[in-house]
Amino acid sequence: MWGLAGILAIALLWEGYKLVGPANGVEVGDLRIMPRTTDLAMPHVWDMLGRLFEPVTRADDALPLWAAVALAALTTLGIAAAGWLVGVVVGVGLALVMQRWRIAEWGLLPWIVLSQTVPLIAFAPIVKSWGSRIEIGAFEWQDWMSVALIASYLAFFPIAIGALKGLQSPDRIHTELMETYAAGYWQTLVKLRFPAAVPYLLPALRLGAANAVIGAVVAEVSTGLQGGIGRILIQFAGQASGDPAKAWGPIFGAIVLGLVAAGSVALLGVILSNYRRNEEHA
Q1: Which of 65, 110, 131, 281 could hold 146 in an S-S bridge, CB 3.0 to 4.6 Å?
Q2: Average pLDDT over all residues of the chain
């Protein structure tokens, strides 16, 4: 309900500014702080929505724009899902190591934080170049694997931080109680630390899923991978001068894709409902 209200409010703001805003945008000196309101820069909302149901091209067998965007989004979603799974394994693994040994936390955590400062758009072509040289027997590195690896690079960070905070969340009295029961490390981890980490881990997994989609889209743009939504974003943006509403189709698709990815993690919350209590943000 509130989501629909938010979408409606954005549409009204869009049309309101387009109605009253200057054609050349709002400028302060030589700096434009608000966009132009021409149909080329800001198509009407109904034009953008209507364009979704028109063919992508004038060819007789051309798909509607929404169908082309949906197919591209499914391709990107599959790649992002693979990257998210890798990010979960790496993030939780690092959290376990840092929780187990404090010296590992001191040594790894600064580098984990520093890793997120690398500009992704410059890093993606390097990953593709390295991956193309990997050949192990009959195995050959595929271009989509580079995109999935970059998606995992963005996904693992919030998962590692959230999992670490969750694993460290049990009070001393609870850990001491496990010690009085002669519980070992693995028993304490399974019976106490993992259940305690769930309220921290679920929001981190949702954020990691959204980050994986962002990483996949950016990597598709940077590496030129065909078939994904990142590629058609660039392709349709190049056609915006003649068909401005068309360029917004993949933008809407990318937004829905991120929402679907983050919302899918909510299914884990249903499965782990006995452990959720109040979710905590890392």
Answers
A1: 131
A2: 85
